[in-house]
Specification:
The structure is a single chain. Helices cover about 30% and strands about 35% of the residues. By secondary structure, the protein is α+β, with helices and mostly antiparallel strands. It is globular. The two termini are about 25 Å apart. The chain binds uridine-5'-diphosphate.
Length: about 240
């Protein structure tokens, strides 16, 4: 396949820029060095963050793709960029929790750090102005954010990704605590996994020390933020395939 030519910027998000290409079916995602948390209230720039998240998410996407999950990711282009299938993103964030922490502890007062008997799936409505409120499947159906078939497929893919990620990270001494996925529809209306999977969107805990190896280091001012991302990349890239 000939290399696509990057066109105009279509969208700039908190952690990535999206560009058109000379192929209307493809887009280029460029990872930024920006950190944001608490709905954009807390911000910082850290050189090297974009490169690390690009490398980590590309590695994870390649592994997931090999295992048959329908995915927008095509290939890593260079230090900061990935080629992906152009999709229309559904306005839902899908969160899976294996262990309780973060917003669920604040919202429901449940005990922190408890392993759940099975993965818990949650949906949030993607709307910055509203602060991404939690919603039920019925909200998604009635307000037209997803169909019954979409939701069934989303749940199936999400649980499969949870299994795959745990299988990937467990031998690396990393506990997958929770993560967030986003889905889109390609030009044929096919539902596919999109966005990124990185320490920005997952909680990773070191299985022996309990150290936080993800964006919580930034959210909670734990220090050595990029060191944690480096450590995830070091273990992922050094694994035996
Ligand atoms: N998450 C995300 N983007 C968001 C909200 C959450 O990637 O806008 C991820 C987050 O990194 C964590 C999981 O989803 O891995 C669950 O996050 P939680 O609901 O606990 O929210 P938080 O405590 O981060 O506000």
């Amino acid at each position: 396949m000939s290399k696509p030519i990057q066109g105009e910027m279509m969208y700039e998000g908190k952690a990535k820029r999206l560009y058109a290409t000379d192929d209307p079916n493809l887009t280029i995602m460029e990872y930024k060095d920006s950190f944001t948390a608490f709905n954009g209230e807390k911000r910082a720039e850290m050189t090297g963050k974009g490169r690390l998240n690009n490398a980590i998410s590309a590695e994870i996407f390649e592994y997931i793709k090999e295992n048959g999950v329908p995915l927008h990711f095509v290939e890593k282009l260079d230090e900061l960029r990935q080629l992906a299938v152009r999709v229309k993103i559904l306005p839902l964030e899908v969160v899976v929790r294996n262990i309780t922490t973060g917003s669920i502890v604040k919202r429901l007062g449940v005990e922190e750090g408890k392993r759940l008997p099975r993965p818990l799936l949650e949906f949030y409505y993607k709307d910055d102005a509203l602060g991404d409120p939690i919603v039920t499947e019925d909200h998604a159906l009635l307000f037209g954010w997803a169909t019954e078939a979409d939701l069934a497929e989303i749940k199936k893919i999400t649980l499969r990704v949870n299994e795959l990620l745990q299988k990937l990270f467990e031998p690396l001494g990393i506990v997958l605590v929770d993560f967030k996925l986003e889905f889109g529809k390609d030009r044929d209306g096919r539902l596919i996994l999109a966005d990124e999977i990185s320490p920005d969107t997952c909680r990773f805990w070191d299985s022996s020390t309990g150290d936080r190896l993800d964006k919580d280091r930034f959210r909670k001012d734990l220090g050595n933020v990029l060191g944690a991302y480096e450590e995830i990349w070091r273990r992922l890239s050094g694994r035996k395939k």
